[in-house]
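Case 316 in the screening queue. Each case pairs one protein sequence with one candidate compound; here the compound is magnesium ion. For every case the pipeline is the same: read the inputs, emit a complex structure as tokens, and attach any notable structural observations.

Predict complex for case 316.
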Amino acid sequence: NVKTIVTENIEIARALLLKGKLVAVPTETVYGLAGDGTNEVAIQKIFDAKQRPNANPLILHFSSQEAIQNYITEFPEALSSLCAVFWPGPLTVLLPKSNLVSPLITAGHDRVALRVPSHPLLQALLKGLPFPLAAPSANRYGSISPTTSQHVLHELGGKIECILEGGSCTYGLESTIIGEENSQVVVYRLGGITLEELTLHLGYIPPIKNKEATNIASGMVKHHYAPETPLSFYNPETPFDAKAAYIFYKDVPQKLISSSFLILSEQGDLKEAARKLYSTLHALDSQGYTQLYIEKFPDLDLGSTINDRLERATAK
Ligand code: TXA
Ligand code: MG
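Case 316 output:
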């Protein structure tokens, strides 16, 4: 076991990363577990710390769109114009990898996942490094992504040397993953950039391929993003359970007014609800409830992303 320090100092983080060590870093989506994306020893440490199977590829994080050039062999126009609009931000793109990218990063696949995050502290860190950062979400494999340094400490404390303190993540949900198939943009994971936003820029609704058994993205695994306490969708017919906690979007049903319940956004703001979702699940998970119930969200904008995560988290 190592002592895990939590610091706002990017020089400490930079020095560790240059030595091939891991640092948990804040992003606008969720905290990531970062290491030198060009160093196979560092990359393998990421899989080990998370207990993540090597078959699940990692995202490379860069400071700018220009910085990705040497790591890819092609950048189709449709994808580069979406990146120009949404980077820096919660969009990840799959592109044909150059031989600078280790097969450990891509789990042997031809395409590499790349992202330019917007969090100012991570931007500053990336600008001072001579390599991109490989970073999956900083949680143990299968559990909920961390949106605060406290969550990371709870998940990986004692396993990594440093957590860069960057406050609460503003999106609170992972990035959207896109790529191209037969000259058409395809969405592999719903995330912080919504289907509606992509549609507006593309002029067509990109197909969502996040359920295919052939797909390798771990975010597509059915049971994923789950708290330890059993989680189910709330359904008005379910008998009242005094040992359960209930989570609602903006209103609590009258009959549950005296139960343990939480509302994610009184105003009905999906961005606010998304930002609070994982931290609410993290908090309720440690409070001794035997069951958590959560209401299904309206199926639009970030509500679709939230429902995607909830479907996986409630899957048996
Ligand atoms: O918002 C995010 O994307 C966060 C922050 C830290 O950037 N990262 C994140 O990473 O969510 P991770 O590893 O937890 O999820 C990345 C997903 C996984 O489902 C992985 O399988 C998929 O991206 N992925 C990565 N590289 C891929 C590739 N070459 N082909 C297909 N899927 C890939
Ligand atoms: Mg993850």
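Case 316 observations:
- DSSP finds nine helices and 14 strands in the chain.
- Residues 136-137, 145 surround magnesium ion (ligand 2) (CB under 6 Å).
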